[in-house]
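Translate structure to sequence.
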């Protein structure tokens, strides 16, 4: 991954029911399944720095997702390098999946009008289907290589839902 600006989606898994406080948003009840968080990285270090931050457990949470990372295992990252912010369009495309639910309104969306940037699925969402939806919605994603899936971490220590 490069230190360039872009948009990303964290694909995470929750193995057991758990609860955690999410700053001012309140108590979050995580159910077993897959969670997708959509964001963008336009600061110093770009995607490389932001994904590295999200891959670690933060002892001083800054973003909403930092509160969830201790209970969700990062499985995969989908990303695209771009000088334009697409996180809201990505979140819109994710919300249109029939299997997607919004586990907490306003999550990751305190600076925009999106309902949420966090989505839950009982099964892992398809990167191919998501890529196809983005291609339909955004002319920028013309090539398959524009959205790349990577597995940034080793296998989870706890057994998660089946993929």
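Result:
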């Amino acid at each position: 991954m490069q230190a360039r600006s872009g948009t990303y989606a964290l694909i995470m898994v929750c193995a057991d029911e758990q609860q955690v406080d999410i700053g001012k948003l309140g108590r979050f009840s995580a159910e077993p399944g897959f969670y997708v968080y959509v964001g963008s990285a336009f600061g110093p270090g770009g995607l490389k720095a932001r994904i590295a931050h999200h891959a670690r457990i933060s002892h001083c949470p800054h973003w909403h997702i930092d509160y969830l990372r201790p209970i969700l295992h990062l499985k995969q990252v989908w990303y695209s390098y771009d000088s334009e912010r697409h996180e809201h369009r990505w979140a819109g495309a994710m919300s249109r999946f029939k299997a997607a639910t919004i586990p907490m309104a306003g999550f990751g969306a305190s600076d925009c009008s999106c309902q949420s940037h966090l989505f839950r699925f009982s099964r892992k969402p398809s990167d191919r289907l998501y890529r196809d939806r983005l291609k339909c919605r955004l002319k920028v994603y013309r090539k398959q290589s524009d959205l790349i899936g990577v597995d940034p971490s080793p296998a989870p220590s706890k057994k998660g839902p089946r993929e």
